[in-house]
Amino acid sequence: MRDHYDFENARRNPYAKLLKKRVTIRLDENTIDYFKALAEETEIPYQTLINLYLRDCAASNRRLRMAWRPKKRTEAS
User: Fold this and answer.
1) Residue 17 forms part of a structural domain
2) What percent of the chain has pLDDT over 70?
3) DSSP letter for each residue of 14-55
4) Which residues have C-beta within 8 Å of that of residue 44, sequence separation ≥ 6?
5) SS3 of 56, please?
6) What was the pLDDT predicted at 77?
7) Is residue 28 part of a domain?
8) Would residue 53 count as lying in a domain?
9) What is the pTM of this model?
10) Contact in structure between 35 and 44 (CB atoms under 8 Å)
């Protein structure tokens, strides 16, 4: 290795913005088990699979459909 490196003409990494960012997310046990089983089957780390799934959702602009139904009234209420 050299004693000194000259970075005067260096430029920033154009892909630095595409790097992954660490986040904390709470997932239920069944979801984790599902992705871990899929990871064993595909030999891809489960966290990578979760990231790929979320990336696909974002790329296809997929939205979660949530339809809240009113509670059924019982005779006593």
Assistant:
1) no
2) 96
3) TTGGGS---------HHHHHHHHHHHHHHTS-HHHHHHHHHH
4) 52
5) helix
6) 55
7) yes
8) yes
9) 0.63
10) no
